[in-house]
Structures are given as C-alpha cells and as structure tokens.
Sequence to fold (225 residues):
Amino acid sequence: DVKVTQSSRYLVKRTGEKVFLECVQDMDHENMFWYRQDPGLGLRLIYFSYDVKMKEKGDIPEGYSVSREKKERFSLILESASTNQTSMYLCASSSIAGGRNEQFFGPGTRLTVL
Amino acid sequence: GESVGLHLPTLSVQEGDNSIINCAYSNSASDYFIWYKQESGKGPQFIIDIRSNMDKRQGQRVTVLLNKTVKHLSLQIAATQPGDSAVYFCAENEGYSTLTFGKGTMLLVSP
Fold:
C-alpha cells in the first residue's frame, strides 16, 4: 500500500515563527502536493512538485515556500507564520505510471497559529 | 477544532438505505474523475475513479456514474453503513494536470 506520512498531526506555533511541515512518501512517486483545507473552501493547492528540486505554484502560494531535495520528501515552509495560516495541511503524492492520476493523501497536520 | 464538514451540503440516510451523492464539474475537457472519502480527522482516501470514455463503473458497494453532457458525476453507495459516514469529494483532471476538487458533501448514516 502507498503510504504518505506527515511529521506532525497537531502543531501549535506563534505568529512570526518559521514553521516546517514535512511529508514523506514510500512509493517512488514523482509528483507531490501540498494543500490546505478550510471549512467552506475545500482543498486548495499551495505548491506542487513534479520532480526533485522542481516546484510549481498552486492556487494560493503566498506566504509559503517548499523544498524537494529528495524524491520521497516534500517540505512546506511558512517563513513567518500568521494567524490566517491556521488550517489543516494535507500532503499528497501521485504517479502517472499506469495512466492514472490518483493522488494518495497523508493524514494531515492541523496547524494552529496563535 | 472545526470540522471540515461545516458549511457543507449534508445527506442524511438510514443504515441499509442506498445513498447517492452528486457532483457538478466545471471543465468539459476533464477526462478523469475520482471520488474520495474523508473521515473526521483523517486525510482523503480514494474510493473509485472513472475515465471519460466510460459512463459507469462499479466497485464494492459503490458505483460511479458520469454524464458528460451535463458535466455531472454521482457516487452511489449500496446498503449504506454507519462506517460510511464521512465527507465525500469528487475531483476532476484534464490530461496530467493537477486535480480540481469539489467542496464535498457530508454523508450522515443513522443506525
């Protein structure tokens, strides 16, 4: 089974702190994604990556950056956390091998910024 | 904390009933569609997918129907069980672009 893991289930940070969210997948997928999920807004794409050291902006990249130094790991960075970044963060991975574009999700990190 | 289910359309059914969850998609060029299930406190899980060259696909207790004419997707769950209670999302994709997700529907199953 594909497994996507996220470093923390719950995280509490203070305004202005630098925050790192880590995601690791074990299926050698080339694609990785970071979303945030908020009530009434659904899943919104922050950043994604098609390969090591490659990154693409999603729909809401402002206030975030990412890093993909290894194929299995995709990190989301909040350079200076703000209260409006309180949210559920979901990581996903996918591969186009087999002709499907199904994304496999991690369990999520619920981030609270005080 | 707040549930992802707040502000969502909700479908309430009795255990044993059949459930139908609907989704309207926006891109007429989308050629791949997925249904996801998200239980409280967990990430979305894949349920079933369908390509645009099909109009129906069946899994275990689930069926997805695709009507490209009206850009409509539905998920049918047979003999709904309390464990089916969750938020259900559809997602669409064109080629190998990123997925576009619907807002979701909350399914509540009463014993």
